[in-house]
Structures are given as C-alpha cells and as structure tokens.
C-alpha cells in the first residue's frame, strides 16, 4: 500500500489559505517528496508526516513556488536526526540551484546527492520503486515524474512441483534471482514463481502545456496528480501564454492516457474556489478530484 | 508617526501556529523589513501590508529562520511592479548568502544592492532615518539594528522677527540648509527655526547573548523589540549554550538601557504559550509586551 499526502495545492506564490503544490509519498516507511515551495515543511508539520524518513526529494523545476522550501526542509531533516544521504532529483540547473540555496544550509549531518536531469529510469533506495522522468513544456526546464511500484509474483507450489524443483531449494529460489545448479540441473526463480502481478503507477505532472508525449508517459496511471492552474475554460489563452493547463486540458490528458483517477493541484492564486470549475474537468474525465491541502490517498495493490 | 507590524514571533523553524520573527516598519509610506524567514511574505499577505514599497530589508544573521523567505519575497516584490532598487543590509557573509539564494530568483525587474556589515551609520532613502548596527554575540555573525527617526524643528516666528530676517526669506530659509546673502547680510536656517525636537528610536535585537555593548546601543529606545527565546529562568543554561536570551535577561537589558517599552519575540518552538512566562520579564522591567503575530504598534513623535 502506498500512502499519499497532498501537502499543498497552490501555484505561483504562497498564500494564507493554501500551501504550495507538493506531494509526499510514503511506501513501506520510506518517503519521497515531490516539490518543496515556501512553507512545505509547515504543511508537513500540520500533517504530522515526520521529516527523518525523507529519502528522495523530486523537484519539477526551479521556480520559487516549487523549490524555495528546500533549504529550510533540509535543515529540519538534519534536526530530526537523519544521517543517511538525501537524494535530490531535478531538471537541468538543479545542481546550481541546490548549491546556491545551500549557501545558507551548509552544515548538514547527512550527505545531499543531486541527480540532474536523469536520462534513464532510476531504481534505487528500494528495488521495487522505479522513477521515470519526462521533459515537460514550461517557461524553464521542467520534468514530470512517474513512479512504478512493482509487486513480486507469488510463490506457485503447483508450478514448482510440475517443474520437479526439489523442496529444499524452494525458499532459496524465491528469495534470490541467482540460478542454482544441483546434480547438473539448473534451477531458476521462474520455475517456482507465478505470473507477474500488477504494480501501482503514480504520475505527477506540473508545470506544463499538455504536450503529446505526456499521454504515453502517464499511460494507465492509477493516480495522476496534475496541475490545473486555471479552472475557467476562458483562461486558456493565459494557460498558453504562461505555459500551464486549464482543468479541461488536464482532463483531456487524463482521458487520453486512460488513467484511473486524476487529482488537480497547483491552482492559480486568482482562483479562490477551484471546485467551482470542477465540471470543466468532469465533462471530459469523470474521475477528477479537486485537490485540497493535506488530502490523503491510499493506493492499494490489486487482489 | 511610525507604524510597526510584528509579522511573526517564532524562532528556530516555521511552525503552523507562529510565523518566524520579523518586523515591518512603515514610515511615510516607505517600508523597512527586518528579517525574513520562511513564510514572512505570507504573514505580510495576511496583514495586507503590500510589497511594492519595501525599500530596505535588514537581515540580522544568516540562519534559515531569518533569511530563507528572502528569494520568495524578492520575487513577489518584483511581481508587485517595483522597479526601484531594494537595499539589503546584513552581517558578514550576507553578499554570498544573497547571491546563493538568488540562484533561483535571478531575473528581478529591479536592482538588489547589498550592504555587508556596515561600519558607519546609514542615512539614506529618507534623510530623516538613521540606521545603526551593532555586532551581537551569536553562533554566527549577527547584527542588531537601531533606527532613529529624526524630526525637523518648527519654524519660530518670534525668533525670525528678533533676528530681523526679512519676511520674504522665511519660506526659503525654512526649506533649505543653504545660507542666503542679502544686502551684505548672511541669513541662515538657524535664525528662523526653533529648538531641535526629539525623534523616535526603535531597536531590534536578535539573536544574541546579553552582552554589555547592547545597553548603550539601545539606550533610551522608545521601543525595543528583543528576542526572548526562552521564557523559563531555568532555561538560562540552554540560552547560554545556544547564544540566546531568557525573558529575564532581555528585561535586564531593557531596564539598564532605560527603554520605554519592550516587545519580546523569537520564541523557541518548545514554548507553546510565552505569556506563561511574562512575570519573569515584568519582575525586572514592567513595560514588557509578549509579541504576537501581526501585532501592530504606533510610535508617535512627542508634543
């Protein structure tokens, strides 16, 4: 099971009523934070998420509303007693930005490792988590994130018996990918394990225009967290100019990619009540949720 | 008249219930901000102070809770339409810190001028405002601030008549410091103006131990805004170790300097209710106020 906390839903600048867009992923006690604007650590405090277990911080792009909270959060993580490294992933420029921001947070009790603009999928911390990135279309280099939480197949007793695998090898084969040679016969994991089981896919897309490449990237996501800077269809021109999306554009993406559920976030400061514009999304993609600060979600593996 | 807004009263890290210690001075529509931790711009938004008129930002020291809000605020000032320069004053290291933080706020529509560790009193923006600084005793270079708002003397009709100043020169002499020579006689401003009038002195002291030099620096302040990180007298050892002050120590400073009123701020995160410790200050210095977020003060010139 994956627990998600939407720490904030605002875009542009921090406001009294809405924290800046940020998502916290909790999987087996390990935490991944996506974006960290000014005040994100306060929202974490309200949500009582803790700080010490943050292993990875994914930054979409280097605009203040997505990154200014970083030096304060890094300090607070340090104060929480963490000594293991923290990995920061971000687009082109993230190394310079982190270095700049850390001018005021120089002495941390742990190492900060920065991965700039990864060209391949990342598979670390936990081998069950694969992180993919996609270049988006914003006014500065920006990347979308997709997380795939894979699930091991079950042990299949019948298959093991059919394949004549000696019982004393079952446990060993289940727990390791290494082949075992016994009496000249090679035994591999596939001889005892069942079918692959479906994992969970989570995608996070902000800030961007709805470019073609996104659909394939977020394809079949169990949950898509997408920016919806403008609720009103009439603001499409603003969305085009400022390289953002309207609710309807985000919904069109969600539909094209057959995602299960979409949560809208990153609402513009001018939009007091995003729910007033929900219809603009649901007319296109019914399973749309208007995000709220500290809304939580549970994503469960099937069966 | 000088309007003050205590934007926050917290120290250490931003919390859900208390913004970080920061003070906004408004004098004749010009604004001076002292310290800018994470979220200061949100407190300004709540207090509806506006952003465009901020001429000077005084930073006491380069710890996150006093400076992390700077890049976000500079961006918001830019979005407010300001094109005039903004001056940032701070201790040793402020240039490097501002440069680092501005890695993520590179393109502002106005110039940022940084004054590092000023050795003399500063007298700019408005000639009536004199800014003095004092080196404090904290775990990183830290400076206290004192502001003197001077007041012009009144025009003195009797004195002008006594000094036989021709009436047609009165207005000119009142408005300028230049001498005027008429028929071989030199007329100066002092021939028509009354006694100097008392100005207003405001001091801001955080974070520091109560070192001797502070008393003279804050001497006769109309208002002293002082850190009070620890309310409980029993926390004096922590105060010594962490280079802060208890309420009682701040009150002792206020008394020794004969200030009129002291407002305590920069309360440690562990102190839920600073008012519980007010007696520890008032036993020493009666006119102590426990600061609260967005508390406002009016300082009026005498007479």
Automatic annotation (TrEMBL), chains A, B:
Signal sequence coordinates: none
Annotated protein name in UniProt: Ribonuclease Z
Quaternary organization: Homodimer.
All residue ranges annotated as the Metallo-beta-lactamase domain in the record: 19-196
EC class: hydrolase
HAMAP family named among the record's database cross-references: RNase_Z_BN (MF_01818)
Cofactor requirements of the protein: Zn(2+)
Function (record text): Zinc phosphodiesterase, which displays some tRNA 3'-processing endonuclease activity. Probably involved in tRNA maturation, by removing a 3'-trailer from precursor tRNA.
Species of the source: Clostridium cibarium
Gene3D superfamilies linked to this entry: Ribonuclease Z/Hydroxyacylglutathione hydrolase-like
Enzyme active site: 65 (proton acceptor)
Binding-site residues, Zn(2+) 1: 61, 63, 138, 207
Family: Belongs to the RNase Z family.
CDD domains: RNaseZ_ZiPD-like_MBL-fold
